[in-house]
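Researcher: Going back to the complex we discussed earlier. I've cleaned up the inputs and rechecked each line, so this should be the final set. Can you rerun the prediction on the complete assembly and write out the structure?
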Amino acid sequence: MSKEWLARSIVIVLAVGAIAIPAVASWGRRHGIEIHARMAETGGWTPESLTAVVGVPLRLRLTSDDVIHGFAIGQTDLPVVDVIPGEFSEVTYTFDRPGKYTFYCTRWCGINHWRMRGAIVVSGPGTKPDIARPPLYVSLGLEIDARNPADVVPVQKPSSARGAWLGATIPAAYLSRDYYLAHSPLELWKALRDEPNLRNFSDQDIWDLAALVWKSNATPQELKTGQQLYATNCAACHGESGAGDGVFADQLDRPKSGEHAEMRAGEMTTRPAGFTAPQSMLSASPAQLQGKIIRGGMGTGMPYWGPIFTEEQTWALVAHLWTFQFDLEDRP
Amino acid sequence: MNRLQEVTWKGKVPLAEGLPASPRIRAPQKRINLAQVTWFRPLLLSRWPQFLIRCLTLAGSVFTIFAGLFGSPVGSHNFAIIFVWIAWWTALKLAFIPLGGRSWCSVCPIPLPGEWLQQGGTLEKRRHRFSLNLRWPKRLRGSWLQSSGFLLIGLFSAVTMTDARVTAWVLLGLFGLAIGLSLTFERRAFCSYLCPIGGFSGIYAKTAPPEVRVVDASICVSHREKTCYLNCPWGLYPLALRDSSQCGLCLECLRSCPQDNIAINLRPFGSDLGWSRQSGRLDDAFLALVMLGSALAFATVFTGPWGSLKSAAFAIGSPPWGLYALGFLAFNLTLMPGLFSLAVWMGSRWSGQKTQLRRAIGNQSQVLLPLGLFAWIAFTISFAFPKLNTVLSVLSDPLGWGWNLLGIANTPWSPDLSGISSILQVSILLAGLFWSASVAQRLVKASDRGSLRQALPILAFCFLFTLAMFWLLVG
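Model: Rerun complete. Updated structure for the full complex:
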């Protein structure tokens, strides 16, 4: 072989090897489905729909192409995984029931963070998906977008401890779970105000009794769960204090031009609702709040959480929302 | 002019240009001729060592393109970003250029495929060649296009240096351009006139130790065949070399000289600087100013405290980027050349020099080279050193596919220069300023009616630049 042909061979072998070696190596090393996470504005999850079979492990290799994301599967207690830029997190899920599961991002990765969702369709021979029960607001036929501001509000934040201290007897009809779910605090206040045995109590006292009724419908564990869910999923927009002043609030409120215009996904958004205003909150029932959470706010940018939260989680979140109106501590 | 294709041939090679303007001022400096070092000589004469290194760099480039296109889009986990913009770019500024001049050009893989087609062989010229072998258009000669290329890099630097795919496409584009020009024009047209890195390396190669020169000029003059020129891929004639800015250190002249009259010298730093030229080249002056201005612009965008400026540099095509581009171009095309020209003009006026302004600008631009090189080194300390830890992890997982080939993918090693980086940067910038001042002083002594007044405005320009770099890098 002449020197020139030897030289040519070296050039070709090295150049081809530079591509072939990593390509072949990658072929043999990849196990599981590779999922890339990007901010919603630049693509979200890829792929965003997966299939699995009941009882068959689903192995995922998760990586982020931009910022830190989180991966979780809604309505399950399957482990949550951090998705780090440039690194791979491997996780294996095994589903025991068929159905359509929603996976979503658990990190506030951007203003459209909530749009980062995908679906896993789990099938399985001989099993059928649970038939979904309609949410309460549908059963009750509530118009959850209706605005009925409260015409009566307390002069100070109602306290369940003060209500308990009054020693008043509240009719049993108002203490049932069903009553709590279907009525607003304002409706309860008006009903209690009309009760003859409570005639001697002031308006504020009646509000304290309403707070007591609301506290009787929330366990400490439920309140704790609701607080955690709120901090993780809601506070970015609605604010830690529930005042509608989360870190994304200003961006959602701005007109569709300027520095954040490109961050929107095209839908109209409004400033997130606050939970500290008694006029709007005290006239809403737990069923209405549940409806808003499940369905989302039409045309406001509020995401729908129905596929993410279990029913218990949704009620826990609703219970936490009342803490912005009522002082539910044991001591005033 | 040091290219034979740019001067009328016989009898007009400007031999005197490379010689000291005044022997009284500049005594001959010592050189070590590497071609005469017994153990080193075979390494220089054989094409194989250089060729094998080029093959490796070619394979590295091919892998870089592959990694850029198919690897992780996260820059810190992609070989293309880390090895091009952190490892290679740092090595170029800290080692290749300051110590080796255009040494990178001697192993650069970009011209290799085109040269193979143009010359019919990878190691030596053969019969079957594929090139029109046209002469490069006269109006496009000089380093104007290289300056423009560097400005273009600056305009898109924020994205190019962070997006692996863009880096891969830029590299592919450079290979494509080099192949296209090799098929159209004679010799290394891409390297000589277009490559922005060639321009960067070339202009600062004047400060570096290596040089290719003839041993005895009379031997070259009497040699009729000019084999060195015929075999030079760059189209250079060693006898006419007056500085090291154009020579790519391919050493073909050494290999082809039948008289063994070529010296590969190691000389004192900055030996090309401080000479009063017969003809000042505006394109070289512009290139020096672009390099200086780009160092300042890069430091402003990448290490400055202005987040909105950084965002604008990233948002290519947006109105904020348009403003950034306008500012960047205005700074490099108007402000820097304008201020420097004003300084040269004032210096000439105050010292009573009668030199033509164009020639004075060309001459005085030599002063900018040490400061420019050291400004780039100081910027590199801020820009690249904190990210050097990623080099090891990327070696272990070059494509960001979750590999750990060497078991060091998550090595937390990082050179901690936080305590000394400011001192280091100030020292480097001051060293550059003093070196530039020394070149200015040499130019004063070399001129006919030398006066310190001539240098003062130019030194003030350099001082202001140094202050700006202090402010951006050290705060």
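Model: Worth noting: Confidence is low (pLDDT under 50) at residues 1-27 of chain B.
Researcher: Good, that matches what I expected from the previous run.
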